[in-house]
Amino acid sequence: SKAKVFEKGKGTDVTFKDVAGLEGAKEEVQEIVAFLKNPQKYTDLGAKIPKGAILVGPPGTGKTLLAKAVAGEADVPFFSLSGSDFVEMFVGVGASRVRDLFKQAKEKSPSIIFIDEIDAIGRARGKNNNMGSNDERENTLNQLLTEMDGFGTNSGVIILAATNRADVLDKALMRAGRFDRQIYVDMPDLNERKQIFEVHLKPIKLSKEMDVDFLAKQTPGFSGADIANLCNEAALIAARKDKKAVEKQDFLDAVDRIIGGLEKKNKIIT
Ligand code: ATP
Question: Superkingdom, according to UniProt (predicted)?
């Protein structure tokens, strides 16, 4: 979510191997990869390729990662922007950013546009929000809808968006021919946490006693992002103690730290 407004349409080197768990979501986006790789296969049969899909799920569960993996697997450029970048923007800037982004993506099609935190732009109209000006948010949303309607089904640009709050989104976004697919990206269960650990432990030098089952059991309620953070935190703790390998205790200390952090975060929210 810290992505720059434009990641100037570079390819990504993320693939499905980097995305642990999320089997259902990966299966659903497989079809998008297939469209991007070989649009003609679909259009020759008269099929209309969907324009977009919304990835819905809690923070840190891998929505951005999955969108990048789609671009990586299809080997197409990835353009991204985040809804929160439009907060407190001057009048006209949001809409013109959206216009520019679509223009660039079309020039480089087949390509992916990824809009993170789409709820910051796409909240149901006429409600209060944290944007600088309600009008400006509406202009940005309207421009997005115009762009989506404006390009043909077979432009080769697919738009993925992500949100934690599908319930607040303007229904106009979900209409047929816009984001007419929702893909759920859930918090990982025990087995998925194990798989996420396997990805993030790879670069880390572990003591022999370490086992992934143990770590997965110690981390209920952790998202993929929390697990990535935990692995790095444990390595930092071990390094501070001049250890040659990261031990179980370092992970336990890191778990305590992260749970402390999560509790603080929740206190602020409630
Ligand atoms: P947000 O809603 O906060 O934007 P997100 O769902 O987009 O979060 P990501 O930004 O994709 O989450 O995840 C952050 C990082 O956490 C990833 O770059 C990756 O290192 C790790 N991560 C999250 N989910 C997974 C996963 N399923 N497999 C492997 N790593 C993951």
Answer: Bacteria
Q: Please give the sequence-ordered ranges of beta strands (E in DSSP) within 69-175, or none if there are none.
A: 78-82, 111-116, 157-163
Span from the CA of 19 to the centroid of ligand 1 (angstroms) = 8
Letter string b/e over residues 158-179, b meaning 16 or more CB atoms within 10 A of that residue's CB:
bbbbbbbebeebbebbbeeebb
pTM for the whole thing?
A: 0.88
Residues facing residue 79 across a β-bridge: 113
Q: Is this complex's ipTM strictly greater than 0.85?
A: yes
How many other CB atoms are found less than 10 A from the CB of residue 59?
14
Closest CA to 265 of 229, 239, 234, 237: 229
How far from chain centre, in Å, is Cα 66?
A: 6
Residue having the nearest C-alpha atom to atom 14 of ligand 1:
225
CB 133 within 8 A of CB 91: yes
Q: How many CB atoms lie within 10 A of CB 80?
A: 24
Task: Please write the tens of the pLDDT for every residue from 17-34.
Answer: 999 999 999 999 999 999
Number of residues in the chain: 270
Q: Can you read off the two tokens belonging to residue 254?
A: 């890191």
Among positive and negative, which fits the CA dihedral 149, 53, 167, 81? negative
Nearest CA to ligand 1 atom 10: 64
